[in-house]
Design goal:
single chain; DNA Primase, Chain A; 26 helices; DNA primase DNAg catalytic core, N-terminal domain; five-stranded antiparallel β-sheet; alpha+beta; 602 residues; 53% helix; globular; six-stranded mixed β-sheet
Length: 602
Amino acid sequence: MGIDRATLTRQIKEANDIVAVIGSYIPLQPTGNPDVFKAVCPFHDDHRPSLQVSVRYQNFRCWSCGKKGGVFDFVMEFEKISFPEARALLARRANIRLEDDSPDAAIRVRQREAVRWAADLFHDCLLNSPLASRARQYLGERGILGETVRKFGLGYAPADGDWLVQQADRAAFSREILEQVGLIARSSSGRGWYDRFRDRVMFPVRDISGQPIAFGGRILPDSPFLDKAPKYYNSPESPLFNKSETLYGLELARSGAASVGYLAVVEGYTDVLMAHQAGIHHVVATMGTALTSKHVRVMQRLVPRVVLVFDADDGGTTGVDRALSIFARHHIELAIARLPEGADPCDLILRLGADAFRGVLASAVDALDYKLDQLARREAAHGIEGQRRAVDEVLGILALMPPRPDAALQLKRDMMLTRLASRFRVPEERLRQRLVELQQAASASLSKREVEPLESGIESKRSAPAPRHEVELMQLLLAHPELVGKCCEYIEESEISHPGLRQITAALYDLHRMGQVPDLDALRSRVTNAELVRRAIEWRDVGRQCTADPVRWLERLVDVFDAIQQAKQKQQWRGELQAVGDHEAALALLRRLQEDQVGTDR
């Protein structure tokens, strides 16, 4: 007989030290207390270390935004996944085999396994197969060393149209799973399958924990498909991969970024490879998309500053404007670095060495100053009207900041207005008035894709607030699971009026009857509502802080529930008394009410 789910969940939790797990996502700093670490919170626009991680209690808490919980909670919140998926991820991390996951979690695990299997297959093909000789030659000509190939897990997808399909058949991966993660697709006839990547050098795209989630593919220069396919091709978006929040190389760059205090964002895969190969380890790339707010939030978790590296011919036109509008809404600095004419980072490093690229990064200019210099050059010949247009252009960017920014963003905006006023010699108060006008216009036309939802995954129509005594019962049972057995002898789950709390109570009672420890970890496998689980964590923490004797607390709550049930019974009898037509039956009901009142008065 296998291990029950609750026991297995507990083993997974115990095998994943929360400090090690959180430290694999964000930099942790020691404090004066060896039991406590701190970090910049990744769940809100934090600009000082507000997150604390406890070794003793194996939990985390942000004292600013209120996020808290254990190792499962952190992974769920950071990865934006469900509890079963977090459980599966942490099980893999601890090399614990799962046998009874929910269907959705099992599918997600299988999807991750498929991408990892394909990454290993492509990598082995590049290193060892005669089919990849041209790919090895191409990488050698680009100056990419074998060490870098292995570090980034580069691979090769052969030119055959169904090479991966055939490999999948032998490896027992279903074609539907490979289709879901964008590795293969159905033919136009619908009767066959074909590989999405053909005759391409493969660049595995990994999440922050280093797990492959997608691919980028660069077609070989002499490929027969060169005129029929794009030069670079990325995996389509999938349950694992969102290109609007993924940065290539971030899992390898975060350590170097923590050392130097910033991330450098370039355009291409080979730019990232060459920078890391040259010892510049804080470089990442977007996935062929413009920078988004999601990218910025990801980087903000790791560093206080970002340097965008632009080619000389397009440095700072629409790209800088868009970046400024996004960064103005976040607690992170932005600088712009321009490459020499006709160079990209890869070529620059190959021709002039690593110091040339380091010099480019060191010469990065604050994004607002860069924009102001650009406007001054552009409008220099247009007098007052040119200056007005320049001022309006910058104010238009600032107008996209939140209408009610917090204190730090307010200060950031004020400093930008001061610099703008000084640069164009315009009274700051006049700039503020104009900014308000532009904000009103911007609020009406701001694209929905730039507006971040305030809530995600929570129903807007909530049920009525739970009665106080029912909340107290949750606080008690979640903090002291050893009392669940005693509680179920006196309080039936049907006595819980709130649907969510009744669901938790029923799950705790079931766990107890099955001989399992009815604690929060076991509860997660039975309660899938993320908001309800979040509240359960809060109730447990409140219960732990209560200094009352738990047994006496339960006895008091049992009395409260009994009183409520008696009151309901009396109300029912009174209703029956009013409705009954038989005199004798009415007298019997009246006697029961009187006897019950006497018992209560005693």
